Structure formats: C-alpha cells, structure tokens
Amino acid sequence: MAANFWTSSHYKQLLDQEEVDVVHPLDKEKGVTLEDFKLIKMHMANYIGRLGQNVKVRQRVVATAITYMRRVYTRKAMTEYDPRLVAPTSLYLAAKAEESTVQARLLVFYVRKLNPDEKYRYEIKDILEMEMKILEALNYYLVVFHPYRALSQLLQDANLNDLTQLSWGIVNDTYKMDLILIYPPHLIALACIYIASVHKDKETTAWFEELRVDMNVVKNISMEILDFYDSHRTITEDRITTTFNKLALRS
Amino acid sequence: MSEVPNVFSKKVADRYLKREVLGEGTYGVVSKAIDTKTGQIVAIKKIRLGKHKEGVNFTALREIKLLKELKDPHIIELIDAFPHKGNLHLVFEFMETDLEAVIRDRNIVLSLADIKSFLQMTLKGLAFCHKKWVLHRDMKPNNLLIGDKGQLKLADFGLARIFGSPDRKFTHQVFARWYRAPELLFGSKQYGPGVDVWAAACIFAELLLRRPFLQGSSDIDQLGKIFAAFGTPKPAQWPDMVYLPDYVEYQFVPAPPLRSLFPMASDDALDLLSKMFTYDPKTRISVQQALEHRYFTSGPLPTEPAKLPRPHPKRESLNTRVSDFNQQEGPTVLSPPRKSRRVMPQRDGFEENAHQVEKSDEHVNDIRQATGERMSWNEHAPMSIDFSVFGSRPPPRPTINSADKSRLKRKLDLEFQQPDQD
Ligand SMILES: Nc1ncnc2c1ncn2[C@@H]1O[C@H](COP(=O)(O)OP(=O)(O)O)[C@@H](O)[C@H]1O
Ligand SMILES: [Mg+2]
C-alpha cells in the first residue's frame, strides 16, 4: 500500500465497529434499530451502484460515493438527511472528487428512470443543496483509498491473477458493509483474496505468512464478509419498505 | 425537509470579519478577514457558483480535496471551509505577498543567498507534494505566496492532481505556458513529477534573470524558445520524444553555453539548473535530489526567511507586467508529421493569454470520457463487470453458497490457528 495511506485523512478517520454501529438519537426516536440502519445503508449502496452503472462512472467513483454516504451517517441522522437524496448526491460529489464529473441533469434523469417510487424523486436543486451539506458533514475530507489498487498488486505478487474476477467481485460486495470505514483498504483486499483463494482451492498459506500483516484482522474481515453473504439472502423488498416507513420522511 | 435554515454554518460565517478585497481568482474573490475567535488574519476565498447549475466549482473542490491532505510548512494552510448564502467559502492563512511581486519589484536586490532561499522553500513544498503523490501542475511565481516572516508556501492547487495510478491519462493543458515542460508541449498525457521540476527550474531562472525566462507566444514558439536555450534535443538524449502525440521535428540548433544565459550564476547553480532542465523526464533530477544538490550546502548559504527582502506593502502593479528582452529567435519547425499545426509568426512575447491556463479542460475531457470512450480510461482489472450484488445483471462469477461458506469458515478457523506475528 502506498506510503501515503498512513498519513492520509482516511487513515486518521478510521473508526471502530462500535463507533460505526451507533444509531443517531433522532433515528432511534423513530424506532430505527441497528439492523434497520445497516439495511438502509446497504440498500443505498446498491442504489448508488445502480445509478453509477447508468451514468457510466468507474467503479472507483461508486466506491467513493458509498464511502461518503456511510461517513455521513456516522454523524448525521437519516431523518434529517434523507438517504434517498444523500445517495445520488454522494455519487454526484464523488464523481467530481474523482475527476470524472457527472452532470446533475443526467443523474436526475436516471433517478427518475430507476425509481417509480415518488419518494426517490429529487430535483437538481435538491442535489446541489445537499452537496454542500454532505461536504460539511464530511468535514471536507474527500480523499478515499480503496482496496482495488492493493488488490491488483497483491494478486500479481501472489501470482494469483486467475482470482482477479472473483476477488474483485468480493471487494465490490464489501461496500454493502461498513468495512471501508473501519479497516485499511489493503487488509480488506487481503481478506477478499483469502476468501477467493480458499474458495478456489488455491494454496496461499505460505504467501500469506510472508506478508507482514496482522492475520487476525484479515481473518476477522473474512468472517464478516462471509457472515454478510449469509444474512443478506434473507432480505426482502418488504423489509426495506417497512424500514423506510419508520423514517417517515416526505410524508 | 431541506428548508431548515443552516444555523451551524451561519455561526461559522459570523466568526470571520470581512475586510478589503485582496484579489480576484479564477473562480472567486479573495478577501482579507479577521478570525474574531483567535484574532488571526486570514484570507477567505468565496467560490463562485458554476454557471451551469453544477454545484460546487470543480476546481475549488480539487483544491479543497488536496489541501485537506497536505499539511506542511511550505504549503498554504486551508484553515476552514463553510457555506454561506449558498456559496462555499475557503479560509486560508493570510499571506502578505507573492514571489512574482518580489521578482518584479525593481527596488529589490536579490542576492545569490536570497535566490537560494526562495528556491529551497519552493522545492521543499514541492517535495512534500510529490511524497504525497500530488502534482501541483500550476507552479509559477504568482502562486508562491510569501508570509509575514518571509516563509514561502505553495498555493493555488486548483490544477493539482494525485498521480498514483501509473496508467492514468492526464491532460497536457496545465501550467501557464512559460512554465510548461517540453513533454507537455509535445502532448504527453502520462507525465509525472518532472513537470513540476521543469516549472521550478523556470522559476529558478526567473529569480536569476528577474524576468520570465522562456516567454513563448504559442506552444510551438514555447518549444522554439526552449530549444534555442538548450539546443534541439537529439533522440539519443530523449528517446521517448519522437513517440509523443504532438511531436514535430524542429530544425537543429546547438545549445549556447548555459553560462552565457546566466552570467552571474555560480557553477553549482548552473549545474543544478541544467539538471532540472534535463529534456528526458526520466533522467530529469527529482525534487528530493535537487534539495540534496551541493548548491544548497555550498556558500553562500540560503538567507533566513525572515531576512529576505520584501516588496513595499502595496500589492499592485501586477497587471502592468512588462515583458521585455526576449528577442531571440527560436528554431523553426521542419515537418509537422501528424498534426498539421501552423507555425505562428514570431510575436514578441506580449501575449496576455500566456498566463491563462484553461482550467476546465480536463473536466471537459472527463465528461466526454464518462459518456463515451471510457474503456481506455478504466482501471486495468475488469471492474464493474461484476456488480454481483449491486446490479440487476447476472453475476458472471460463481456465487458462494451456504455449504461453501461453512467449509470456508472452518478452513479459515483452522488456518489461522497459528498466528505468525511478532
Ligand atoms: N492566502 C492568501 N493570502 C493573501 N492573498 C491571497 C491568498 N490567496 C490568494 N490571494 C490573492 O488572491 C489572488 C487569487 O488567488 P489564487 O488562489 O491564486 O486564485 P487563481 O486560481 O485565480 O490564481 C492571488 O493572486 C492573491 O492576490
Ligand atoms: Mg493563482
């Protein structure tokens, strides 16, 4: 991992799981549980991913947008910052920050196209207003490191290039969780490589041992990812709708 | 919902007491202000909103993004940022003057020790950027601000970029023309920190000459001026040159002795200068190496910042720049092989536009990239083909089922039993 990660604002802002898993008091009042909280964030990560595909931005932009969205909710309440507006705005801001601007007009077009549900329909002016609020919520820290680059380098180093597709997909899936707020990206990459290599029966023990990393952390991340794959199967649209109703936004 | 007044930001704005306007930037007005909480004098840049309803200005966002990561004694400090009446405001430490004002002030005598000090501070700021994988891309005396204790700091990061990924393509439309490295003028899109070194060399030369060194009136003329000063490069000297996108062959001219261009510079100064002005960016000296050059340890030693000469407190006469000297003819273009670009008739370096960098250029490119030709722009691994859980597309990879999962978990448990660390 590039030396600058350790001096970056990203590194300094990493949180513990317990700090991330705090439901804002205002949301709690509305009956939002920790599980609901995680569910909405996951749903919004998916939404950002879909929007990203449609407006055609790089995966990196999507990943940054999801990170922004997740960071916002470590500080702000969903009842005050409607996730259905924060999601497209995060993508809008991330695209700028990652040097591949998406026009607000285009974004709003796809927001409408993808959502028959009126509650998702925000206008350009809403996005521009929210952009400023997100910037403030992020305390203007915009640089985000992702596991992707470390992943390519590590796979090459381990001579595991045939695991690229599988491990890349797993990295994408980690954005449905809060891992990016908690762990250094190269450790997330390692966990994904680990899962992929075990899954494909590749012998990597020696290679992992040679890396001077805390394998306990890698193991924990791997377990969390696997737990996630387990639990996310049981999520239904109904469940998401019910959760959103609790927030009772834009009645 | 979002109609709730933003009480917090109003408070932040009230903290600063606005005073006179200091200057007009490309995307906003800069005013002096007092931080009533600390008594500190600051400079506040009010970012103009984009014309086309595109929210926070793209260039401003770049500056915020990078300055939040770059904290160094030789880089301008972004103290704070806040929205006020729909505009974003950036709070910087206040700086008294800039290097351009120093160079232009005819009442100032710059000793060799003073020049060394200014260059050293410039390179220190640049070294920090490069260590953090940031290219400044707009190095020029006007963007090197000078504080009340003589400290020089890099400012104006509106064109700066992170250069981490090796295969990323950049726009070559960066820097004011007179500070542009030859690889940029030949259209290179995969350049590196060497472009900042070249610009720093131009600033070094400008400190010695007290006028911009290479005042080209067009890109072609700029290269002509460069070649007139250092000789037309031979392919052996710079093997990649002929493959650059906008390469055109120039008539061969030999290099005059460097000493003849800088009669008053020391041998060490000339040696460093020639290493910074190396044609091939691959062999051009790095900023770190430049800082370790004996020029900085041989006498006279760099002047202490507090003892450096400063211009009269009035910050003006910047617009009435005289571009004098500079009559020397450059070599002419022989054959434009691919691009048929016309060679401009020699104008005498009086071009207003020479200092205007098209700041939105890369931005425009990116929009194009995003809507069409984005494949070449992708990171090398096959991302976004796999939105497995993200998209509605069928995942092109095997999914992990429950049985797999428990097997994996067991295996994980087993294999991590013997943690092998200190
Ligand atoms: N920190 C500062 N202290 C004092 N004056 C400043 C400061 N920053 C900018 N200025 C003034 O504002 C002008 C424009 O700012 P700058 O950031 O260079 O914008 P631009 O992108 O247009 O070059 C500068 O030329 C300078 O006169
Ligand atoms: Mg400037």
TrEMBL record, chain A:
<keyword id="KW-0132">Cell division</keyword>
<dbReference type="GO" id="GO:0045944">
    <property type="term" value="P:positive regulation of transcription by RNA polymerase II"/>
</dbReference>
<feature type="domain" description="Cyclin-like">
    <location>
        <begin position="46"/>
        <end position="136"/>
    </location>
</feature>
<dbReference type="InterPro" id="IPR013763">
    <property type="entry name" value="Cyclin-like_dom"/>
</dbReference>
<comment type="similarity">
    <text>Belongs to the cyclin family. Cyclin C subfamily.</text>
</comment>
<dbReference type="GO" id="GO:0051301">
    <property type="term" value="P:cell division"/>
</dbReference>
<protein>
    <recommendedName>
        <fullName>Cyclin-like domain-containing protein</fullName>
    </recommendedName>
</protein>
<dbReference type="Pfam" id="PF00134">
    <property type="entry name" value="Cyclin_N"/>
</dbReference>
<keyword id="KW-0195">Cyclin</keyword>
<dbReference type="InterPro" id="IPR043198">
    <property type="entry name" value="Cyclin/Ssn8"/>
</dbReference>
<keyword id="KW-0131">Cell cycle</keyword>
<dbReference type="InterPro" id="IPR006671">
    <property type="entry name" value="Cyclin_N"/>
</dbReference>
<feature type="domain" description="Cyclin-like">
    <location>
        <begin position="149"/>
        <end position="227"/>
    </location>
</feature>
<dbReference type="GO" id="GO:0016592">
    <property type="term" value="C:mediator complex"/>
</dbReference>
<dbReference type="InterPro" id="IPR036915">
    <property type="entry name" value="Cyclin-like_sf"/>
</dbReference>
<dbReference type="GO" id="GO:0016538">
    <property type="term" value="F:cyclin-dependent protein serine/threonine kinase regulator activity"/>
</dbReference>
<dbReference type="GO" id="GO:0005634">
    <property type="term" value="C:nucleus"/>
</dbReference>
Automatic annotation (TrEMBL), chain B:
<keyword id="KW-0418">Kinase</keyword>
<feature type="region of interest" description="Disordered">
    <location>
        <begin position="386"/>
        <end position="422"/>
    </location>
</feature>
<dbReference type="InterPro" id="IPR011009">
    <property type="entry name" value="Kinase-like_dom_sf"/>
</dbReference>
<feature type="region of interest" description="Disordered">
    <location>
        <begin position="298"/>
        <end position="343"/>
    </location>
</feature>
<dbReference type="Pfam" id="PF00069">
    <property type="entry name" value="Pkinase"/>
</dbReference>
<keyword id="KW-0547">Nucleotide-binding</keyword>
<keyword id="KW-0597">Phosphoprotein</keyword>
<dbReference type="InterPro" id="IPR008271">
    <property type="entry name" value="Ser/Thr_kinase_AS"/>
</dbReference>
<keyword id="KW-0723">Serine/threonine-protein kinase</keyword>
<dbReference type="GO" id="GO:0051726">
    <property type="term" value="P:regulation of cell cycle"/>
</dbReference>
<dbReference type="InterPro" id="IPR050108">
    <property type="entry name" value="CDK"/>
</dbReference>
<dbReference type="GO" id="GO:0005524">
    <property type="term" value="F:ATP binding"/>
</dbReference>
<dbReference type="GO" id="GO:0005634">
    <property type="term" value="C:nucleus"/>
</dbReference>
<keyword id="KW-0067">ATP-binding</keyword>
<keyword id="KW-0808">Transferase</keyword>
<feature type="binding site">
    <location>
        <position position="46"/>
    </location>
    <ligand>
        <name>ATP</name>
    </ligand>
</feature>
<feature type="active site" description="Proton acceptor">
    <location>
        <position position="138"/>
    </location>
</feature>
<feature type="compositionally biased region" description="Polar residues">
    <location>
        <begin position="319"/>
        <end position="330"/>
    </location>
</feature>
<feature type="domain" description="Protein kinase">
    <location>
        <begin position="16"/>
        <end position="296"/>
    </location>
</feature>
<dbReference type="InterPro" id="IPR000719">
    <property type="entry name" value="Prot_kinase_dom"/>
</dbReference>
<dbReference type="GO" id="GO:0004693">
    <property type="term" value="F:cyclin-dependent protein serine/threonine kinase activity"/>
</dbReference>
<feature type="binding site">
    <location>
        <position position="45"/>
    </location>
    <ligand>
        <name>ATP</name>
    </ligand>
</feature>
